[in-house]
Specification:
- This protein is of the alpha/beta class and 307 residues long.
- Helix content is 38%, strand content 15%.
- The protein has eleven helices and nine strands.
- The protein has helices at 16-32, 58-69, 90-98, 114-121, 137-151, 169-180, 210-216, 238-245, 249-253, 275-278, 285-304; strands at 47-52, 73-78, 104-109, 125-131, 158-162, 184-188, 205-207, 219-222, 260-262.
- The strands form two sheets. It has a five-stranded parallel β-sheet with strand order 7-6-5-8-9, sandwiched between helices. It has a four-stranded parallel β-sheet with strand order 2-1-3-4, sandwiched between helices.
- Helix 2 links the parallel strand 1 (47-52) and strand 2 (73-78).
- Helix 1 crosses helix 11.
- It starts with 15 loop residues before the first helix and ends with a helix.
- Bound molecules: phosphoric acid mono(formamide)ester.
- Phosphoric acid mono(formamide)ester is lined by residues 56-59, 130, 136, 139, 264-266.
Length: 307
């Protein structure tokens, strides 16, 4: 059994051997995705509910494809289309659906801790597909997979996460996962977008100058400004943010080596990342998306075949 837990709620405290097990299993499923018939019978007879109570393009599509490619039965429910809009609680929603014999619930929710709460009120396996500004474990796992695929190893590589660190679940899951795998992790952004006490998570450098970050790192994982989570203005203007923090071709040209460019999406083109960099040779952004299906197949397989 690869996990100490029946659930995947985050990468905090997930041992490196479990991460390696997921990445190795994902490599096998990545090969399945290149076959003419991209389907295996692994989760035949299992039923998965995708409960997406916050918007998503990549994660939801990726989970649904991963489940179908594993031959699971799949039901999907979004916030807009559910009775949560009529006032039904998350607990009642989950318990009603579980009575229909669901084995795995994949949940995205705007509240940090919603997936943990679900584990206490239902018996099904719970997978966190992003909870508030807390964790997004499968995004970080696909980021780790992509770094390993591109660079051969994660250990010893210097990954800098750039942008809105304070409001990002991707940042937190990446910090935990990268540290567990032996990478050096730094962050870069305006001081108002970097949480106090970030050094306690084992971050080695806090850069407030993106050119300085580019001089030191092997990988830049660029994040979107999560303006919808900012209660008040945290920097003077988008124009100024772009001027000081956007990752552009001109800035990358000053680096002595080719830095790998990652972004979890959705991208705000020409805000945090110039369009030519997003689409350029150093970018692995679309490989991240492809690898996400294989990584989610691995997580569903490892958790879904435990019992
Ligand atoms: N990376 C990511 O979580 O994208 P979505 O919000 O589109 O799922």
């Amino acid at each position: 059994m690869p996990f100490g837990s029946r659930h995947l709620l985050g990468l905090e405290n997930l041992p490196s051997e479990d991460i390696v097990s997921i990445l190795d299993t994902a490599s096998a499923f990545r090969e399945v995705l290149d076959r003419p018939i991209k389907k295996v019978p692994t989760l035949q007879g299992k039923t998965v509910l995708n409960l997406f109570l916050e918007s998503s393009t990549r994660t939801r599509t990726s989970f649904e494809l991963a489940e179908r490619r594993l031959s699971a039965d799949v039901v999907s429910l979004s916030g807009d289309a559910s009775s949560i809009r009529k006032g039904e609680s998350l607990k009642d929603t989950a318990r009603n659906i579980e009575m229909m014999k669901i084995d795995i619930v994949v949940i995205r929710h705007s509240a940090a801790g919603a997936p943990l709460f679900l584990t206490k009120v239902i018996d099904a396996t719970v997978i966190n597909a992003g909870d508030g500004a807390h964790e997004h474990p499968t995004q970080a796992l696909l980021d780790l997979y992509t770094i390993r695929e591109k660079m051969g190893t994660i250990e010893g590589k210097h990954v800098c996460i750039v942008g809105d660190i304070s409001h990002s679940r991707v940042a937190l899951s990446n910090i935990h996962g990268l540290r567990a795998m032996g990478a050096k992790v730094s962050v870069c952004g305006p001081a108002t977008l970097i949480p106090r006490g970030i050094d306690r998570l084992g971050v080695s450098n806090v850069f407030t100058d993106v050119d300085e970050a580019i001089r030191h790192c092997d990988v830049l994982n660029v994040l979107r400004l999560q303006l919808e989570r900012h209660g008040r203005p945290l920097f003077p203007s988008i124009r100024e943010y772009r001027q000081y923090f956007a990752v552009t071709k001109e800035r990358l040209a000053k680096a002595s080596r080719d830095i790998v460019i990652m972004h979890p999406g959705p991208i705000n083109r020409d805000v945090e990342l110039s369009a030519d960099v997003a689409d350029g040779e150093q970018s692995v952004i679309l490989q991240q998306v492809l690898n996400g299906v294989a990584v989610r197949m691995a997580v569903l397989y490892l958790l879904g075949t435990q019992r």
